[in-house]
Specification:
mainly alpha; two-stranded antiparallel ribbon; 34 helices; EFR3_Homologs
């Protein structure tokens, strides 16, 4: 029966006859349009026949492909495309299965023309918006095949780029280069990606960059992720950042050039994401970057990625690791510059909390390797912090520099490492400079008219006054101690000058001005007396620093008599001692003098004179007359430095111990350098022992079994109870016998108690 129907066309089903009629006798004539219109009308009228129409077209196409009748293959695909575009009914899903089967057949072919034909049909199908999604379809084959086709090495550029003859594409787009075409496809794909599909879209990109070593050079990788970041929805940006962070962690043992490429791509992506929504990934990003920074330091110190050097281990290239570290620092700065003020403050606090510092509550690694690791970590984290603080604008200094942050930062200024101290000064300058005056003090000089600097000066706000009342002495002390460092070079003095100048402009009221003058005069005294045995250059630099600052502050205060005194001293130095001025000291070849010990008074700024002239203008003359002495803190003791504050503190301590209130005064011990050194070292040792004892107690309660802790506490409770019993026995013991006392062994008298009922009372007590 079926065979008869197949031979007799009139008995064949109508949908088959309609399908057969669209094919001409000569395939070059193309699709028979009138018959195609009839087939389309039939499909719309009887949508339940769509699946059969699709199955029959698929059968014909497979047969024509096998017989190499490619003209009829093109006609069949054209018919399928028209049916897809015309039919939007619920039965379309059944038809799609046959369509995808035919597209897959074309893509499996080795003929480029058939691959292009199948690709174009699939593109048209992808542009159809369906009413309801179909979850049972699988596109794994198409993803794999299209990815394979992307790596085509065909000689013909037109075939290689898969040009589509679709009328939906404009003429201009037909002229696109392969790169432009690929970019447009990637943008369109990512623009349609939903929240849950972003990771699936990013992962193949990362794999492609890994497999083809495209992280270095990083131009292509950066270009790809710029396309991605600008194509996705802004609220999806943090998903891309998270993918890049995870990929960086996964490549933590890859070559430094690869990690540097990922970091720079991350920097570009983060800047774009910050303009939209980064979400909770801000601290996660900085945490990952700082972790990678520490790993890189370990790689440099150990010489390998696994901590040991063996036959199969990779050898570390130190210069590449340095480049990677610089890339991380640059990334932290570029990303932080886009963040709002409150998030930027959190980032700075977070970075500062990672800096290893020697303090009462923070231990650092010991040994040569530990010291190197600590130093490198401190430098890299402070460089990162400096990048983050660049351009930071905050009207309230109490918010910008909270105590928890400032204490740790200034602790770094007490270290012997000159590079670390310079970073701390530059970080503080970045915070204080809120009007862009920093570059105007890059050169230390004694200008006769500072109006040429065009300084931006605002009145000190109430918040700034509160900040200085709380932290001014802390800042002054660290400036003073930094000035006394023997390892200072020109950059340190330039930073100190900028620091003093910016405080005077940004945070100064009359009280602050007085204290700054006292501070600078104390620095001049350090150079003059030279108890620290500073080199000649350092002493001349301190003299020159004082001259430059007092010249600036005198013109800012605009007190004529003050300006006159400063000008007279500077003129005297210009004539007779130019080596005490910045113009001769802070140059490439400084001109110094070896006769600093015979300093005449005319070369010095006199505290009594300054106190007199400023006191007449309303400044606190009593305070001006008082020499500046820095306060002593725990950080100073731990830094093992010798300062005036420490010496005075020790002298006061010795005198208080020998006061007549406690015991008879004995001859005071002679205080020598060795005595001071021993006292400082002993105090540090005691503090270290106390800290170690506390650490052991905490560790015991954290790790010891519960039974051991309970037994320990029980023993202490029993001891306490026995002591209490002794006290109670003494305080509530009955009165002694009227007969007096008895003598015990060794001639010691003892009270002999008798019961109350045996006591004899006087007659007056009897009623």
């Amino acid at each position: 029966m079926y065979g008869v129907c197949g031979c007799c066309g009139a008995l064949r089903p109508r949908y088959k006859r309609l399908v057969d009629n669209i094919f001409p006798e000569d395939p070059e004539d193309g699709l028979v349009k009138t018959n195609m219109e009839k087939l389309t009308f039939y499909a719309l009228s009887a949508p339940e026949k769509l699946d059969r129409i699709g199955a029959y077209l698929s059968e014909r196409l497979i047969r024509d492909v096998g017989r190499h009748r490619y003209g009829y293959v093109c006609i069949a695909m054209e018919a399928l495309d028209q049916l897809l575009m015309a039919c939007h009914c619920q039965s379309i899903n059944l038809f799609v299965e046959s369509f995808l089967k035919m597209v897959a057949k074309l893509l499996e072919s080795e003929k480029p023309n058939l691959q292009i034909l199948g690709t174009n049909s699939f593109v048209k199908f992808a542009n159809i918006e369906e009413d309801t999604p179909s979850y049972h379809r699988s596109y794994d084959f198409f993803v794999s095949r299209f990815s394979e086709m992307c790596h085509s090495s065909h000689d013909d550029l037109e075939i290689k780029t898969n040009r589509s003859p679709s009328p939906l594409q404009a003429t201009e787009k037909e002229k696109e280069s392969p790169a432009e075409l690929a970019e447009r496809c990637l943008r369109e794909l990512l623009g349609r990606a939903a929240y849950g599909n972003i990771k699936n879209a990013i992962k193949p990109v990362l794999i492609h960059l890994d497999n083809h070593s495209l992280w270095e050079p990083k131009v292509f990788a950066i270009r790809c992720f710029k396309i991605i970041m600008y194509s996705i929805q802004p609220q999806h940006s943090h998903l891309v950042i998270q993918q890049l962070l995870s990929h960086l962690d996964a490549n933590s043992r890859s070559a430094a050039t690869i990690r540097a490429g990922i970091v720079e791509v991350l920097a570009e992506a983060a800047v774009i994401a910050a303009t939209g929504s980064v979400g909770p990934t801000v601290l996660e990003m900085f945490n990952t970057l700082l972790r990678q920074l520490r790993l890189s330091i370990d790689y440099i110190l150990t010489g390998s990625y696994d901590g040991t050097i063996s036959v199969g281990s990779k050898i570390i290239k130190e210069h590449e690791e340095r480049m990677f570290q610089e890339a991380i620092i640059k990334t932290t700065g570029s990303f932080a510059s886009i963040l709002p003020t409150y998030q930027r403050s959190e980032v700075m606090l977070f970075i500062m909390s990672k800096v290893p510092l020697p303090s009462l509550h923070h231990s650092i690694e010991t040994g040569k390797t530990g010291e190197n690791r600590n130093r490198l970590t401190q430098i890299m984290l402070l460089k990162s912090l400096l990048q983050v603080s660049m351009g930071f604008q905050c009207s309230n200094m109490l918010t910008a520099l909270p105590s928890s942050f400032l204490d740790r930062l200034l602790s770094s200024a007490l270290m012997e490492d000159a590079e670390i101290r310079l970073f701390v000064l530059e970080i503080l300058i970045s915070f204080i400079d809120r009007h862009g005056n920093r570059h105007k003090f890059s050169t230390i000089s004694t200008l006769s008219d500072i109006s040429v600097l065009k300084l931006k000066v605002d009145k000190c706000s109430r918040q700034d006054t509160v900040f200085m009342k709380k932290h001014s002495q802390q800042l002054y002390r660290h400036i003073y101690m930094s000035c006394k460092e023997e390892s200072n070079v020109q950059k340190h003095y330039e930073a100190l000058y900028s620091m003093l100048a910016l405080i005077s402009i940004e945070l100064a009221n009359e009280e602050v001005v007085v204290d700054l003058i006292r501070l600078v005069l104390a620095v001049q005294e350090v150079a003059h007396i030279n108890e620290e045995n500073l080199p000649v250059y350092n002493r001349c630099a301190l003299y020159a620093l004082g001259a430059a600052y007092l010249n600036l502050i005198s013109q800012l205060t605009a007190v004529p008599a003050f300006c006159q005194h400063i000008h007279e001293v500077i003129e005297t130095r210009q004539k007779e001692a130019p080596y005490l001025l910045p113009e001769d000291v802070f140059v490439e070849s400084p001109r110094l003098s070896q006769s600093l010990d015979q300093m005449v008074i005319e070369f010095l700024f006199r505290q009594s004179k300054i106190s007199e002239v400023l006191g007449g203008s309303g400044y606190n003359s009593d305070r001006l007359c008082t020499p500046y002495i820095p306060q002593l803190t725990d950080e100073d003791r731990l830094s093992k430095r010798k300062s005036i504050g420490e010496t005075i503190s020790l002298q006061v301590e010795v005198e208080s111990r020998n006061s007549p209130e406690k015991e008879e005064r004995v001859p005071a011990e002679e205080i020598t350098y060795e005595t001071l050194k021993k006292a400082i070292v002993d105090s540090v040792a005691v503090e270290e022992q106390e800290r170690e004892r506390r650490r052991q107690v905490v560790e015991k309660f954290q790790k010891a079994p519960f039974e051991e802790i309970a037994a320990h506490c029980g023993a202490r409770a029993s001891l306490l109870q026995s002591k209490l019993n002794q006290i109670f026995e003494i305080t509530i013991r009955p009165p002694p016998s009227p007969s007096g006392t008895i003598t015990a062994a060794y001639g010691q008298p003892q009270n002999h108690s008798i019961p109350v009922y045996e006591m004899k009372f006087p007659d007056l007590c009897v009623y």
